[in-house]
Specification:
Structural class of chain B: mainly alpha
Strand content of chain A: 15-25%
Strand content of chain B: under 5%
Number of strands of chain A: 10
InterPro entries (chain B): ABC_transp_permease (IPR001851), ABC_transptr_urea_perm_UrtC (IPR017778), LivM-like (IPR043428)
Largest sheet of chain A: 6 strands, mixed
CATH architecture of one domain in chain A: 3-Layer(aba) Sandwich
Keywords (chain B): Cell membrane, Membrane, Transmembrane, Transmembrane helix
Helix content of chain B: over 70%
Number of domains of chain B: 1
Distance between the termini of chain A: 40 Å
GO cellular component, one term (chain B): plasma membrane
CATH topology of one domain in chain A: Rossmann fold
Subcellular location (chain B): Cell membrane
Order of helices and strands of chain B: HHHHHHHHEEEHHHHEHHHH
Number of strands of chain B: 4
Distance between the termini of chain B: 36 Å
Number of helices of chain B: 16
Membrane topology (chain B): Multi-pass membrane protein
Order of helices and strands of chain A: EEEHEEHEHHHHEHEHEEHH
Radius of gyration of chain B: 23 Å
Radius of gyration of chain A: 18 Å
Oligomer: heterodimer
Low-confidence stretches of chain B: none
Chain lengths: 249, 355
């Protein structure tokens, strides 16, 4: 099976601090891949490189057959990669509905948007998605007035409506209650029916419960890959990460 | 919403009929303020909606005004050299003055020159992701450059005095009251058109992209919009508005000088919009008219201390009305709505307990 995303020897250098030191890594279609690792391991930086927020100073990122290493953000989005940020990045002054409207898969050129009208098809799409993320009742409320968990969902919804081929999620369950976490986990698996999902997550219980494949990062490199059980038995991982965490607990 | 549209129509009707109830002097003042209101609409678009604070709109206004003034000056000189050029010892009309003998070219360049300058400037700053305070400072620097240039090149621009002493436009005498009324009505029409156009823009999906850029530009980028294009477009549009305002200003005031496009006027433009409410187009218009009316009222009645009054007004508005006059109106309507709802609820409680 051909990978959706391939990272080859990706290097990132923040003025002397080597955040990523040659990351090699693949994501396959319809996969839910968790990315874990201690603070400063470079997980978020890796997502930043994939979506174009940070430029890699070496190596290549290949998405299907496109080299996206040097593309501008909006072009990467056009190819089908969408990103959810760590703290919910939504438009507070717009309503939930308007947030979704801007996220619709559409021609995003200036003149196309000037003439844009909402079609019934788009309307139905938004309604279906809002139902799925349990926000239909809040459609006409300002997004800034939602609770933290709802904001997280709204942002996930905004990514889903773009029908991406690869979805990047950065700590999607931060600030959610237990029930909300459960729902989010199920939602992520539903999403994976249509696209590949790459998740950075700190919450080990959540990872244990919803992961199939896990990649562990440490000091800017991929340490190992495997299922959660395999990883828990890996001595290197225990040393740098799990062990330390257990001791701390 | 419906009764608000009705208010807009009433407002513009009042402006259109102003020649019937205002003296000639007051009408010319109002006409000048309406030019400022046109600039204010543009600033509301870029600052209130998109979050770009430009402290340099005096330049676009000035460029538009100078373009028109060059035509008026040439028409006044009737084939001779403009007077100020003779004083500076210029013998031949500079080549770039030549095309301004044509009024249509003058009006066209009054729009296109500010737009080109704005597009050039904003493209390079926004592409390199310069924003916030840095952009504001940069826009101020542009003002300084242009003012210095216009004062320095006295033989081409009239220096500190600027361009003045015009007599006719399209062959009509500028001093005749009828011409002035026609120009006033044209200004109202232009303002009305610009207002309707901007309102349509802000209520379309395009307008929501602008607000989204203000809220979180990064998010917009990661939704696949090229935010640079949007910001350059809206910034250039506001420059076009300012250029047009300059044209109408020169026709009514009969004078443009570097002092009118300098740093202080540029900052004042932002203040009008702050007073009116930057998130509201009609607020910006009312802000420009109200602030300038207050300015002329205070300066007429309290010539010694009028600046203190004006300063006090600005401080109190910024401190107590962060969303300007339009914000005051909004919160008044909301409070009224809440009170009515409470009354209704109370009423239903009573009727329930009675039944």
């Amino acid at each position: 099976m051909k990978p959706v995303l391939m990272c080859r020897e990706v290097l990132v250098d923040f003025a002397g601090f080597k955040a990523l030191q040659g990351v090699n890594f693949e994501v396959y279609p319809n996969e839910v891949r968790f990315l874990i690792g201690p603070n400063g391991a470079g997980k978020t930086t890796l997502l930043d490189v994939i979506c174009g927020k940070t430029r890699a100073c070496g190596g290549k990122v290949i998405f299907f057959s496109h080299d996206i290493t040097k593309l501008q953000e909006y072009k990467i989005v056009k190819l089908g990669i969408s990103r959810k940020f760590q703290s919910p990045a939504i438009f507070h002054q717009l309503t939930v509905w308007e947030n979704m409207e801007l996220s619709l898969k559409q021609n995003r050129g200036l003149f196309a948007v000037l003439r844009a009208k909402m079609s019934t098809e788009d309307r139905e799409k938004i309604v279906t998605l809002l139902k799925r993320i349990h926000l239909l009742d809040y459609a006409y409320q300002k997004a800034g007035a939602l609770s933290h968990g709802q904001k997280q969902w709204l942002e996930i919804g905004m990514q889903l409506i773009q029908e991406p081929r690869l979805l990047l999620l950065d700590e999607p369950i931060a600030g959610m209650s237990g029930a909300e976490r459960e729902k989010t986990g199920e939602l992520i698996h539903e999403i994976a029916l249509d696209c590949a999902v790459l998740i950075v997550e700190h919450d080990m219980d959540f990872v244990r419960r919803f992961s199939k494949q896990v990649t562990v990062m440490h000091e800017g490199k991929v340490l190992c890959e495997g299922t959660m059980e395999e990883i828990q038995q890996n001595e290197k991982v225990a040393e740098v990460y799990l062990g330390r965490e257990e001791k701390a607990c | 919403m419906k009764n608000k549209t009705w208010l807009y129509w009433l407002f513009f009707l009042a402006l259109f009929t102003a020649p019937f109830y205002l003296t000639e002097f007051r009408l010319s003042l109002l006409g000048k303020f309406l030019c400022f209101a046109i600039i204010a609409v543009g600033i509301s678009l870029i600052w209130g909606y998109t979050g770009i604070l430009s402290l340099g709109h005096g330049v676009y206004f000035g460029l538009g005004a100078y373009c028109m003034a060059m035509y008026l000056k040439l028409e006044d000189s009737r084939g001779h050299l403009p007077d100020f050029m003779e004083w500076s010892g210029v013998e031949k009309l500079p080549w770039f003055w030549k095309p301004f003998e044509n009024p249509l070219f003058a009006i066209f360049s009054a729009i296109i020159i500010p737009v080109l300058l704005a597009a050039f400037l904003s493209y390079f700053t926004f592409k390199n992701r310069i924003k916030g305070v840095y952009f504001s400072l940069l826009s101020q620097a542009v003002v300084v450059v242009f003012v210095t240039l216009f004062i320095g090149k006295q033989e081409w621009t009239g220096g500190t005095n600027g361009l003045t002493n015009f007599s006719t436009v399209f062959g009509f005498s500028l001093s005749s009251p009828l011409t002035q009324i026609v120009i006033y009505l044209l200004t109202v029409l232009l303002l009305c058109f610009i207002f309707i156009f901007s309102r349509w823009l802000t209520r379309s999906r395009f307008g929501r992209v602008l607000i989204a850029i203000r809220d979180s530009e990064n998010r917009v980028r990661f939704l696949g919009f090229n935010t640079t294009t949007y910001k350059v477009f809206v910034y250039s549009l506001s420059a076009a508005f300012a250029g047009l305002a300059g044209v109408m200003f020169v026709l009514q005031v009969g004078l443009i000088s570097p002092a009118m496009m300098g740093i202080i006027p540029s900052i004042e433009m932002v203040l009008w919009v702050a007073v009116g409410g930057r998130n509201s187009l009609i607020g910006a218009i009312i802000g420009a008219i109200a602030t300038n009316s207050a300015k002329s009222f205070f300066s007429e009645n309290y010539p010694d201390i009028w600046l203190l009054f004006l300063g006090g007004l600005f401080i109190s508005i910024v401190m107590f009305l962060p969303n300007g006059l339009a914000g005051l109106y909004e919160s008044f309507v909301q409070r009224k709505g809440r009170r009515e709802r409470r009354k209704n609820e109370a009423g239903s409680h009573v009727s329930r307990s009675v039944s």
